[in-house]
Amino acid sequence: MLLPALPAPLPVAWLKKLGIHTLLGGLKVEEFDSLHGYIFGDEMVRSGLAGPGASLTTGLAFGVPLILKFASEEVKARFLPDFLTGRKRCCIAITEPDAGSDVAGITTTAVRSECGKWWIVNGTKKWITTGIWSDYASMAVRTGPPGSGAGGISILVVPLKGHPGVTMRRLSVSGTASSGTTYIELDDVKVPIENLVGEENQGMRYIMTNFNHERLAVATGATRQARVALATAFEYVLKREAFGKPLVEQPVVRHRLAKAGAQLESLTAWVEQFAYMMTKLPAQQADLMLGGPTALLKAQAGIVFKECADTAVLLFGGNGYTKTGQGQLAEMLYREVMGTRIPGGSEDVLLDLAVRQLVKIYKVQTKMLEAQGGSKL
């Protein structure tokens, strides 16, 4: 059931080696694609609650792919059998107290020991989903000198739960309360030198390949939550009476529903379009062409979710401001909005990133056309 959280295509050879040939529902592992992943992500949030699904799948969805794509065969052999079968858990640990969307600004360091057998890791990680339950983290660390920016980042598989030098505590956050948001302190943590994923100082490049899947997953969940919020409000205004008639007979109420609904339907179509494109584009081309647009999609998902959650709470009135009773779900979803707009790249950063990347692609393609004797138009 958990494996559909991974990006398509699934690691078929590894799964079959582990005796896994089908997914929930009987789908063959080799037939799984991004549209199946979209359906899975949508169903996991159908109740409106993102926390339970996040507590199960976030680490697998975003921490394991880096190992699958870039780790040596030796590292894969040590970790994938347990991660892919759920015997052990892995999270993704990038964000720090002073470096969130600015990944290049991380300061957690990994220095080789004098004996050459260990990485000695020091620093802190914050807002790490499912960290509190994780045995390991695919962790971004600085292996280059101070000031090396994106060029000095590496990925290590760092042991967490019960490991000497690791202290973890759970954070209380506004939404997705059951997702295990964690603060991690690392004090001279010994990590086997072999736990390096890929090449040293290439971590930023690896992290970038994760973003399309992560942001599409976030957008998928937010779109379903927005639909739950609006559907809940729609059901309420059909039965709630004010001024002698159901709320739905008030033009201002219908206007609010229509405005939010139009945005939601457009967003749904856009998310489905991205899932479809990821089934058609080769992975390398998708990483290049969809990076900016998926950043924009994730940002827009948060914007639309906010509109739908606002609409729901306003139409529920006092009930929407109350944590129990008829408006309980609307009130809860209102608190979930920022869990979409901030994690995975905050909204303003992603809006800017989207345009910068699209400008970059435009310039490259314009030069290619001119080199072939074509016109800018």
TrEMBL record:
Residues 91-189 form the Acyl-CoA oxidase/dehydrogenase middle domain. Its cofactor is FAD. Gene3D superfamilies: Acyl-CoA dehydrogenase/oxidase, N-terminal domain, Butyryl-CoA Dehydrogenase, subunit A, domain 2, Butyryl-CoA Dehydrogenase, subunit A, domain 3. GO terms for molecular function: acyl-CoA dehydrogenase activity; flavin adenine dinucleotide binding. It holds the Pfam family Acyl-CoA_dh_1. Signal peptide: none annotated. One of its GO terms (cellular component) is cytoplasm. Residues 201-358 form the Acyl-CoA dehydrogenase/oxidase C-terminal domain. Keywords: FAD, Flavoprotein, Oxidoreductase. GO terms for biological process: fatty acid beta-oxidation using acyl-CoA dehydrogenase. InterPro entries: Acyl-CoA_dehydrogenase (IPR050741), Acyl-CoA_DH_CS (IPR006089), Acyl-CoA_Oxase/DH_mid-dom (IPR006091), Acyl-CoA_Oxase/DH_mid-dom_sf (IPR046373), AcylCo_DH-like_C (IPR036250), AcylCo_DH/oxidase_C (IPR009075), AcylCoA_DH/ox_N_sf (IPR037069), AcylCoA_DH/oxidase_NM_dom_sf (IPR009100). Belongs to the acyl-CoA dehydrogenase family. PANTHER family: ACYL-COA DEHYDROGENASE APDG, MEDIUM-CHAIN SPECIFIC ACYL-COA DEHYDROGENASE, MITOCHONDRIAL-RELATED. This is Acyl-CoA dehydrogenase. The lineage of its organism: Eukaryota, Fungi, Dikarya, Ascomycota, Pezizomycotina.
